[in-house]
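Please review this one:
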Amino acid sequence: MPKLSVYLVRASLIHMGVGFFFGAMILHHKGIPIYGWTWKLLNPHIELMIFGWVMQLVMGVAFYALPRFSQRESRYGAVYLGWWSFFLLNGGVIATAVAQWFDVDSFALSGRLLMLLGVLVYAVMIWPRVKPSGVG
């Protein structure tokens, strides 16, 4: 498995663990209300589960599973773009989750833009493997 796929899947599992923990805190608060701030974890929980866990897991598996180039130096294409997308997406997810926890909308917007940029960079990197040039 390529190193980028390994890191994407590992990061997605970390986001999943933190997201599950936030969800467990929210669920515990519904049964036994102890801390008033627990509901502020709802938006970061959703952020971590959708963009941190699911999206990165899909990206990591897609990078591993999509057809490779056979007649190129790099069989996986422009892998450096994949690393850029990894850092942009993780930075965006973390920035957005923290901003939602502390109710800082401008920081949340910056995080969303980082995530969007990360996904676009990933799409640019992976698209030649989805539809090779000269086909259809």
About this structure: Residues 3-127 form one domain. The CA atoms of residues 85 and 122 lie 5 Å apart.
